[in-house]
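Run log // design_07
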């Protein structure tokens, strides 16, 4: 990657931009640089690991279960019946062995099965004789979980790179873990560029309401970033010194700084020269995708050797979200040490136009009954109405159009886990 440059050809005030990267190529490129800069491993208590990524494989500290465990309420018996009751075993206790044939202990679900047990008789399938003995016919299949039935001690249950969710937290606890080694979550910041933006009230008199400053932090949190209200700054004044100062400040504490607007080369677009002033390298500078074309990702290495990234998102709201799913999502997967996200596929229920030599990311909603993808309305790059009812973007490859019945990749929107539709 070469240094970021803004070259003014002689006699011309336009900056010569490099050719755009293909959409799939751009995703692969940013994932690779993210993976190369994967964040360090940290030890966290189980209760603090939700949404993190395993930094090492999850293994069990003991056999799972660690001891024979009754699957039912009933009687642990030895030998042939009827059986004389000699005790009771509840969960959480270590019982004495059954040493004599014809004896039994009452046992609760989850309790440790005594040594010497030949069978467990379900309580609902047992009877009591007039002299107080227990009688019945145990089922042929054992009614207890054997040690190591789920996993043997030291067995790998999940690989490094797996996402930690509530199910994983519960599994880790059942294996005897109190903490997990996970990747530190990336810290993000957001700089909003544009003097024309309002931060309160309705738009008017040539000024528009900033929709990205309030929305993008929520998207970033859904991707696993940490971002505080104080990490959102803007609107930043439309001057080069203000852009450089804002970027330099944000980069001191963030692994990723997202910016909105200023990705072109207009009279008040200062992102490119600001990156040059900071000594950044382009990873990607423009992507052949519609909407969202003027997007970028730059890489900076500080004097401390730490790698930081700047994602330049377009100012139009839908284009900014296209840049988010195209560049930021795979970058964050790499930083977290995860595998490259695999895109699900869906069948188009309606045709979707192509965009010539560019990839078209078309907003679609998923039919919950058929699972088919339906294009939504109000999808201009400056519009958010279509985005608010969509589940993801259908990927229409360059030089093609989407026909009814086509199976196409879909980029899911970064929704909460319980809301993911694909």
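design_07 sequence
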């Amino acid at each position: 990657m070469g240094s970021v440059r803004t070259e003014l050809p002689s006699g011309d005030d336009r900056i010569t931009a490099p050719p755009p990267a293909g959409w799939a190529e751009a995703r692969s490129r940013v994932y690779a640089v993210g993976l190369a800069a994967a964040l360090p491993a940290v030890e966290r208590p189980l209760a603090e690991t939700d949404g993190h990524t395993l930094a090492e494989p999850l293994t069990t500290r003991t056999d799972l279960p660690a001891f024979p465990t009754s699957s039912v309420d009933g009687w642990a018996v030895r030998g042939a019946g009827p059986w004389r009751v000699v005790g009771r075993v509840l969960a959480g206790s270590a019982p004495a062995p059954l040493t004599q044939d014809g004896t039994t202990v009452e046992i609760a679900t989850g309790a440790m099965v005594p040594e010497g047990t030949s069978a467990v008789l379900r309580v609902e399938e047992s009877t009591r004789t007039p002299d107080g003995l227990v009688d019945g016919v145990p089922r042929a299949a054992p009614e207890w979980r054997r040690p190591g039935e789920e996993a043997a001690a030291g067995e790998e249950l999940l690989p490094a790179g797996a996402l930690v969710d509530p199910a994983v937290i519960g599994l880790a606890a059942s294996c005897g873990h109190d903490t997990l080694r996970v990747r530190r979550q990336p810290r993000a910041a957001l700089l909003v560029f544009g003097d024309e933006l309002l931060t309160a009230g309705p738009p008017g008199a040539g000024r528009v309401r900033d929709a990205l400053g309030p929305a993008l932090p929520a998207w970033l949190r859904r991707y696993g970033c940490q971002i505080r209200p104080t990490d959102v700054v803007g609107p930043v004044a439309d001057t080069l010194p203000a852009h450089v100062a804002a970027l330099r400040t944000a980069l001191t504490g963030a692994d990723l700084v997202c910016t909105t607007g200023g990705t072109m080369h207009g009279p008040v677009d200062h992102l490119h020269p600001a990156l040059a002033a900071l000594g950044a390298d382009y990873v990607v500078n423009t992507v052949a995708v519609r909407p969202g074309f003027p997007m970028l990702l730059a890489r900076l290495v500080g004097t401390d050797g730490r790698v930081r990234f700047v994602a330049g998102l377009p100012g139009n709201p839908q284009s900014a979200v296209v840049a988010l799913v195209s560049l930021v999502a795979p970058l964050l997967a790499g930083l977290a040490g995860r595998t490259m996200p695999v895109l699900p596929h869906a069948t188009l229920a309606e045709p979707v136009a192509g965009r010539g030599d560019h990839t078209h990311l078309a907003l679609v909603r998923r039919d919950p009954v058929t699972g088919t993808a339906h294009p939504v309305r109000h999808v201009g790059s400056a519009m958010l109405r279509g985005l608010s009812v969509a589940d993801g973007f259908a990927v229409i490859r360059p030089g093609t159009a989407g026909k009814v019945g086509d199976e196409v990749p879909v980029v899911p929107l970064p929704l909460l886990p319980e809301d993911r539709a694909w």
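The first strand starts at residue 21 and ends at 22.
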